[in-house]
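Researcher: We're teaching a course module on how sequence relates to structure. For the next exercise, students receive a sequence and then see the predicted structure as tokens, so they can try to spot secondary structure elements on their own. Here is the exercise chain.
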Amino acid sequence: MLRETAILELHCFPPISYFSKFFSFHNILIEQQENYRKGSYRNRFQIASANGPLSLSIPLSKGKNQQQPIRSVGISYETLWQRKYWTAIRSAYGKSPYFEYYSEDIKALLFNKQELLFDFNKAILSYFVDLFQIEADIAFTTNYIKLPSEGVIDLRNSISPKIHQASADKYHRVLEYQQVFMEKTGFLPNLSILDLLFCQGPEAVITLANSSIPISVE
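Model: And here is the predicted structure for the students to work with:
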């Protein structure tokens, strides 16, 4: 059967392998009925630095966030994390080929003061879907799908910053491209989509398409 649909959770400035799924599958279901899981890309992303990958985490509102409905998880603005993270992004990519071209858009997304993490991540996804002219049909779940039906591939929690939690990715191949600190750090795979965007600009969509492994017929 043609595997046309994949289920994914929302990520914050998702890694490259996340967006490659939008080129592997005809339909994408975004999970909005799940519970929050800490230690995931739901509220963190990785960029390049002169010392290797740098992880940035969006601070959440105080309280018990673990296993809280994802649509209820709030973002904390008690600290000036947006300013701090923008400084880190600018330091990492200020000399990249396409920083000046996309920097204002990305800054606006980062400083988009959403109350809820889900809405913050949704705005990021919408921006990149439009930018890359992604043609996959994207919808949001209306109930929690515990056991997906035949032909629906459950990729929830398969893309994780924790290696022991991440599953083997059958729908993504790593393609190298020129990175800002590559001569010092070597190639750093599967960073945030920000890395690919600032380094490749319009060519990023080609890399995404070529890094996706097509769905299979069974």
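Model: If you want an answer key for the exercise: Strands lie at 5-9, 27-31, 44-49, 52-57, 137-140, 152-154. The chain has a mean pLDDT of 92.
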